[in-house]
Amino acid sequence: MKHIHGFLASPPLWKHEQFGLKQFVIPEINLNTFRLQPIPENLRLGHQVEHILYQLLDHSEACDVLAHNIQIKRGHDTLGELDFLIRFRESGHLLHLELTYKFYIIDPSISEPIHQLIGPNRKDAFFAKLEKTKQKQLPLLYTEEGIKTLQSLEIDPLQIEQQVLFLGQLFIPYKATPSVIDPLNTDCIVGFWIQLSNFKSSVFKGYQYYITQKKEWIHTPHHDVVWTSYQEALSEIQAKHLQKRAPIVWIKKDDKTIDRCFIVWW
């Protein structure tokens, strides 16, 4: 259940409506009766998160998932996918929901604040994902092919609302004052990021470490792992850096608190 608790503890990257996008609020879920069904290990983390949300929504008494991962095709070409089509039981309200779960570092060396949120490997960025959601993913519903797909499911495209569930973890520079770019949610700041040269300082040598697997990135840090020494952790981090991969590392300090950080390779 660490996947579930970590997912439900993840705050939205913004609250209510910002950037022309309204955040979805997950309905109340009775976790006492919820049983997580196996999620294929070979799926990318983004698809694992989709499976988690699907199971939570499917267990909710507030709504029904009418369809999930609906491919929109033009002939043999796939134009894209709709993540979720949902109907609320009490109101009959229809919703198209797009889910995003991202991990961003905040890089103050980038001049434009909204562009400072970038992936830890510098391969993606918040602003690019935001624009893709607004310009490509959501309009897909109203393409000729999207309308035909909805009609095949007996759904009127004019009666459906669109929302997003954009969850995120933000990592600020090491020793920076916790702050975030308005109007983003400060609750999303969960740790810091640091370059390897700074990690090699004496400050970090007395702590214990756990190098997370990608599937554990959504977990809330906990003590039920096998901790390693600084030298063992450094060796594993360097191996990942050779592959140009930045790991999330849990740092257990002397007072038993656990810090969460990205150690970047660039």
Keywords:
single chain; 266 residues; alpha/beta; 9-stranded mixed β-sheet
Structure, explained:
The protein is an alpha/beta fold. It is 23% helix and 30% strand. The protein has helices at residues 2-8, 45-59, 126-137, 144-152, 196-199, 230-242; strands spanning 17-18, 21-22, 63-74, 77-88, 94-106, 117-118, 160-173, 189-195, 208-211, 248-252, 258-264. Strands 3, 4, 5, 6, 7, 8, 9, 10 and 11 form a nine-stranded mixed sheet that branches. The protein has a two-stranded antiparallel sheet with strand order 1-2. The longest helix has 15 residues, at 45-59.
Binned strand content: 25-35%
Mean pLDDT: 94
Number of helices, counting only DSSP H or I runs of 4 residues or more? 6
Please summarize the sheet with the most strands: 9 strands, mixed
- The level of helicity is 10-25%
The tally of beta strands, per DSSP, is: 11
Indicate the low-confidence ranges by residue numbers: none
Oligomer: single chain
Q: How far apart are the first and last residues' alpha carbons, in Å?
A: 34 Å
Supply Rg: 20 Å
Give me a quick take on this structure.
The chain is an alpha/beta fold and 266 residues long. 23% of the residues lie in helices and 30% in strands.
Topology overview:
Blueprint: H1 2-8, E1 17-18, E2 21-22, H2 45-59, E3 63-74, E4 77-88, E5 94-106, E6 117-118, H3 126-137, H4 144-152, E7 160-173, E8 189-195, H5 196-199, E9 208-211, H6 230-242, E10 248-252, E11 258-264
Parallel strand pairs: 5-7, 7-8, 8-11
Antiparallel strand pairs: 1-2, 3-4, 4-5, 5-6, 9-10, 10-11
